[in-house]
Structure formats: C-alpha cells, structure tokens
Amino acid sequence: MADLLNVDAAIARILEYIQPIEVEAVHLTQALGRILAEDVHSGVDLPPFANSSMDGYAVRAADLGTIPTTLQVVLDIPAGTFPTQMLQAGEAARIMTGAPMPEGADAVIPVEDTDSEWALGGAAPSTVEIRKGANSGANVRPVGENIAHGQIVLRKGTLLRPQDLGILASIGHAQVQVARQPKVAILTTGDELVTADEALSPGKIRDANSYLLAGLVTEYGGIPLVLPIAPDRLEAVRELFHQALAQKPDLIISSAGVSVGAADYVRTVLEELGEINFWRINLRPGKPLAFGMLHDVPFFGLPGNPVSAMVTFDVIVRPALFKMIGRTDEPETITSVVDEDLISDGRRSYLRVTLHREDGRVIARQTGTQSSGALFSMVLADGLMIVPEGVTEVKKGTNVTVRLLRDVK
Ligand code: AMP
Ligand code: MG
Question: Is 188 touching ligand 1 by the criterion CB < 6 Å?
C-alpha cells in the first residue's frame, strides 16, 4: 500500500491549512452546543454565603449537649433575606433551604427532628424542641463549597452543555465568547441524482449525501449551505462551484466525482479554481479524497458512495472542523471483542458494527454487507470498528477499538 497516503499524514497536511474561525459574544440563552472560546474563571464564591441545605432551625451545635432540648426562636430567615442578628447561646432561628446562616449558628436541625409543625405561611413559634443532636457544620453549605472565587470553571474549547450554561449563569457570566459557526457549502454532482422530494425515473437514485452531510455539519456546530444538485456537465459543475464561493463559506465540501473514471468535471473545475491535491488515502471505505484551497476557502472532495462520504467526513473533515471552531474533545471509543474472524486489505478500515454486552464484555458484530454504497449499515451501526492500517487478519476474540455512534445497549 506504499502508494496510498496514510490517514494521519493526510490529516496533518490538511490541518496546516485550517485557521481558527473568529470569536463572537453570545448570550447564554443562545450558547447551547457552541464552543467556548475563552477560559472562564469564577469572579465569585458559590454559594456566596453559608446557607442551609434543609428547612429547619439554625442552632449552635454546642447547645445540643442534652437531647431533647428547648431553644428560644429569636429569628425567622426566609430565602432571599439576610439575617443581621447574631444567635446567642440557647437561641435558634427558623431557616429555609438556601437561606443564609445567621452569625453564631453552625448547624441546621431539619424540621422533622423538632416538635414544630409548619403550616404554609405560618409564623415561627417562640420556642422549639430539638429532638436530635447535630455536629457543627451539619446541613450547612459553606461559602465556596461549589466553586471558589478565582477557580477555573470551564476551559476554552469546551462544547457547552446544559449544565455548563447553568453554572455560567450561577457565576453571572451572561455573555459568552464562542467560536462563530462556520458556514459549510455542500455540493453534489451527478446525472443520476434527484432530491428526496422528487420522483424517480429509470436509472435515477435519490441524493443521500446532501442530507447526511448537512446533518453532520449541523451536529458539529456548523451552518450547512446546501446547493442544488449539478448534472455531470462542465458548465453546470463550474456554475455550482461559483455559486458556492459567492456565498462566502468557511468550508466547501463536495461529494462524488473525485474517483478515477467518474464523469470527471469536478476535477477540471477544481483545477481551474485552486491548488487541489487528489489523494488516494489508506482508508476503507473512502480511498479517493481531494483537498485544497479554493480562493482561500478549504475544500474537501469526498467520495460519492454515502458510507465513504460519511466515514471520510468523520475521520478527516471532522478534525478540520474541530480545529476551525477550537473544539478539543475527541469522539468516544470503546474497547470491544470481535465475534468472528475478519480479513482486511491493510487499509485503516471502519467496519459498521452493532454492540452488545455479554459477561461484562462488549461484543462487536458486523451489521451485514460492508459495501460502501449500503448506507443502511450506518443506520444499523452502534459504532465503527477500527481495523488499523497494516492489519490483514483479525481473529475472533481479539480486542478492537470501536468509535461509538450511540450508547451501548
Ligand atoms: P462517483 O464518485 O460520482 O463515481 O459516485 C460513486 C457512487 O456514489 C455512485 O454509485 C453514485 O451514484 C453514488 N453517489 C454519488 N453522489 C451521491 C449522493 N449525493 N447520494 C447518494 N449516492 C451518491
Ligand atoms: Mg458521479
């Protein structure tokens, strides 16, 4: 396979051309799924004041030497208020969950462990009988327990999840610096292709790639710009690429027309527009790949077969997109056991497999045909089993790495 370009070498060459995209400020309400473009440190302690984790009575633990004991209720502290009176020996304060601890108190006795019966909106009693003891600190959430002032909260490159938005809100970080969403033009060529809405006539098939590539772009935080399918004619293909460039995309992806022997106007047009490399990658599925710059816009020409297009996107385009938006996490993988002998051709192979648990191990089984045109294999697959380059045989029972496409059942 000496004439094939190694997958990692191809990625490394491509990444040299990929520049990080600009940063923009968005409000928290718009930040879900975006990539954080700043390290966020907390400017506050969370919680900002010691508070009760229970509805009950704030007490001095030292007063509870003998149980039961009766204390004078001298204060009532609803959430959202701040007590200014200090608790003296023999005194208690009625307190609600989240309300600030009064000075002098160091523990909270839950209402269930007292003689109190609270009615909704009822006033605090004048005395309370405490029926269970507590150590200093019981049911108190100390200042900074959650986050300390100055602590790093989230790192640059993080994909923002709901809990991240919650914590950013908690520290008052309402405007967030995130990577701009890249606009990705998606181009499709082929006389045989019609859209999902159109009727088929003999010899035609429906375009799958535009939809699945648009889905991948959206899933990874980009904005897909799907252009109309161009027929296999030089003028039409040229017009398609000019239309794409006119939309000022950050990335252009085409599928089909880069394999040898295709009705190959894509290649002609690419050579007119930029410096393009046509590679044969040591990858299965997905050997043919074109990459270059079209008027300063990075361009990927993916294979036409839908499985190849999808795998090539995942293996090669995704790292480029991640570099562009500064995203730092890696796709999840799992170690699993092959349930049959496999042969491979020495290219790095991504086989569609289902996964199931058996005796504490995860077993990987091929979904059926591994034809690169059989997109349904991707629908069935829980993951892509990675057979490394140079490996031609995998024996039943061997451990292999699987790139997860969904959680293991
Ligand atoms: P090509 O690269 O044009 O030789 O195409 C390789 C194979 O992929 C052929 O079987 C095409 O019909 C198929 N193909 C190309 N583009 C698409 C598409 N957008 N959706 C589904 N199949 C496609
Ligand atoms: Mg074609």
Answer: yes
